[in-house]
Amino acid sequence: MARTRNLKPRFFTNEQLADLPPLTRILFAGLWGIADAQGRLEDRIRRIKTEVMPYDDWDIDRALGGLHDAGFITRYEVEGRKYIQVTEFEKHQRPHSKETPCGYPAPPERSPENSGQCPENSGTDPPLTLNPQPLTPTPLEASASCSEPEEPAAEPAVDGPSDFEFPVTGKGKRSWTLKRSNLAEYREAFPDLDIDDEFRRAKVWLSTNPRKRKTARGMLSFLTEWLGRSQNKGGGRTHAGGRPQADKGPTVTDEDLT
């Protein structure tokens, strides 16, 4: 599941990252969105390709190897299963308070020569990450710094569209985009549901059932009903034991919405 993360301007001026191919850099930024609250994810090439670079013909395994060699991530294996750790994730990101780790094991410690540091500066410079911190803060950063973690950038005052676009029926446009304010309200109203995943399922359902599509004016009611039915059926982020819930298809069935 993709999540909202911080991406600072220094990402674009990192000289060590600039040595990697452009699509590898995009892949690196995408890993932050699919990593859990501890910056870890399963090292599954096909899944990463689908979630981060579905439209690009790129060797994901080789790109991940390049990021590993440069110290931006760590690829490791525990008890026969492969994982990825984004370097210093928790130092530079502030996951939502309700976001819980997936329980992936921590990676073994990497040797200094493979930690993302320059050999001649090993032990003095911090490892390079997506959001590297300057050695000396600028006056603006110094005046704004405090003991509390840095707050994410505020949303623009204008309520713009979210990333969720759904097919609709009726006159005019054939698609309707959910507003960010509505998305925030849904996440607050249904805290136990994976809203992003539910909306992806709803979009697939509408795409495969063109005769049952709603008008643009009816989409909010449709999504509210979809989430309500999913919650009543026991949809949620995890099983009672705390393990991630398996993907078993749409939570809401055709019969529920007819």
Distance between the termini: 28 Å
Sheet with the most strands: spatial strand order: 1-3-2
Category from helices, strands and their pairing:
alpha+beta
Helix content: 25-40%
Spans of at least 5 consecutive residues whose pLDDT stays below 50 are: 112-157, 238-250
Q: Shape from CA axes?
A: globular
Based on the structure given, which CATH architecture of the largest domain is correct? Orthogonal Bundle
- The pLDDT mean sits at 74
Tell me the number of helical segments per DSSP (H or I, 4 or more residues long).
Answer: 10
CATH fold label of the largest domain: Arc Repressor Mutant, subunit A
Order of helices and strands: HHEHHEEHHEEHHHH
* CATH C-level of the largest domain: Mainly Alpha
Number of extended strands: 5
- Total domains: 2
Radius of gyration: 21 Å
The description of the largest β-sheet is: 3 strands, antiparallel
How much strand?
A: 5-15%
